[in-house]
Amino acid sequence: MDRPRSATLITRTSPKGVSVTVGQTSPGSEEIVVRNLTKHYKQLRAVDDLSFTVRSGRVTGFLGPNGAGKTTTLRMLLNLVTPTSGTATIGGQRYLELDQPIRHVGAVLEASSAHRGRTGVNHLRVICAAAGLPRERADEALALVGLTPAAKRKFKGYSLGMKQRLGIAAAMLGDPRVLILDEPANGLDPEGIRWMRDLLKALAAEGRTILVSSHLLSEMQQLADDVVIVAAGKLVRQGPVDEVLGSMGAAVQVRVRTPDPAKLTTALAAFQPSITPLPDGALLVTGMETAAIGHAAFTASVELHELTGERADLEQVFLQLTAGKAGIR
Ligand SMILES: Nc1ncnc2c1ncn2[C@@H]1O[C@H](COP(=O)(O)OP(=O)(O)OP(=O)(O)O)[C@@H](O)[C@H]1O
Ligand SMILES: [Mg+2]
User: Fold this and answer.
1) Which end of the chain, C or N, has fewer beta carbons within 10 A?
2) Do domains 9-240 and 253-310 have the same CATH topology?
3) Ligand 1 pocket check for 67: Cβ under 6 Å
4) Does domain 9-240 fall into CATH 3.40.50.300?
5) Prediction pTM value
6) DSSP summary character for residue 311
7) Which residue among 37, 42, 48, 71 has the greatest number of ligand 1 atoms within 8 angstroms of its CB, and so is best to mutate?
8) What is the pLDDT along the chain (329 residues), one digit of tens a residue?
9) Does the beta carbon of 69 sit less than 6 angstroms from any atom of ligand 1?
10) 287 lines ligand 1 (CB under 6 A)
11) Is 209 close to ligand 1, i.e. is its CB under 6 Å away?
């Protein structure tokens, strides 16, 4: 299947001029703002006083273990679930108050479904007709997600990855400035995941607001600019990926290989790092920056054959931050 041509295709070549809002909205006007959002199911606090902001022009990863309340939050944003209390707004308005929501917000929740006997293109045309969008949008959206070759095949013959693409195509029909996706990488193969990453980044680069939930942490590390981490319905951490990772700076590990481990250990002793010999003969040093280790070795004339810093990855941060809060409730 083709890679997406360009996310800009949809905005620039729209023949009948679907109302394109690029450049017309003031910065930040399409932000998603969640304030004290709460949803109780009997005793269960599925979402518990959750507040966060999703900025435009960036991809925000909405991360949390199973049952953390991600889907419930996204459904409240889209007015599919009524909050017990609190608010969720898109560009300052609740979803309910949006004029022609399909032109403001595109959503992909769970694997999209369509009439089994309907072709991909017809599925999209039906949505266009219902929403008052020109039918050409169906073809443009299919091209955007690389599904043109399968446009006339029936939905029942689509693979899971093709269904995910069709779901994104449907979400993009109204050329929305805000895109909300719940676990869109589910069922995609590595090529599909890379395709999705490229598409979402391109859409964000056009100034759109992209909120994407996932528990695929490694994928988020490559995709997201910002992360919002939740566990047990509560906010755990939010911020730029780099900052969230940086906050774990103390956990930086450095792999060092030297022909004289004893001499290096002595040279580093003043810095009180933790030094663990590895089975392959290298040393794993924590509590010291890479540069400081290199400098200490140089000063003590210790020969180094390897000096590799390993930053804590999002997976480690995530597990630390959500420790004890994961699990089925
Ligand atoms: N309609 C409902 N009735 C009762 N409980 C519900 C309902 N919807 C969700 N829950 C509960 O709320 C909690 C949060 O569920 P939610 O689906 O939002 O989590 P999630 O973060 O999307 O998890 P996952 O990663 O598994 O998709 C869970 O304990 C779930 O069982
Ligand atoms: Mg979910």
Assistant:
1) C
2) no
3) yes
4) yes
5) 0.77
6) P
7) 71
8) 444 444 433 333 333 333 333 333 444 467 999 999 999 999 899 999 999 999 999 999 999 888 899 999 999 999 999 999 999 999 999 999 998 899 999 999 875 678 889 999 999 999 999 999 999 999 999 999 999 999 999 999 999 889 999 999 999 999 999 999 999 888 788 888 899 999 999 999 999 999 999 877 777 888 999 999 998 899 988 999 888 876 654 456 889 999 999 999 999 999 888 898 989 999 989 888 889 999 999 999 999 999 998 766 666 667 767 766 655 55
9) yes
10) no
11) no
The distance from CA 245 to its chain's CA centroid, rounded to whole angstroms, is: 15
Rounded to 5 degrees, φ, ψ at 48 are: -130, 95
Residue 68 Cβ contacting ligand 1 at under 6 Å: yes
**CATH code of the region 253-310:** 3.30.70
- 3-state DSSP of 207-269: CCEEEEEECCHHHHHHHCCEEEEEECCEEEEEEEHHHHHHCCHHHCEEEEECCCHHHHHHHHH
Question: Of all protein residues, whose CA lies closest to atom 11 belonging to ligand 1?
Answer: 46
Indicate if ligand 1 lies below 6 Å from the C-beta of 93: no
Hey, what amino acid is at 137?
Answer: R
Q: How far is the CA of 3 from the centre of ligand 1 (A)?
A: 34
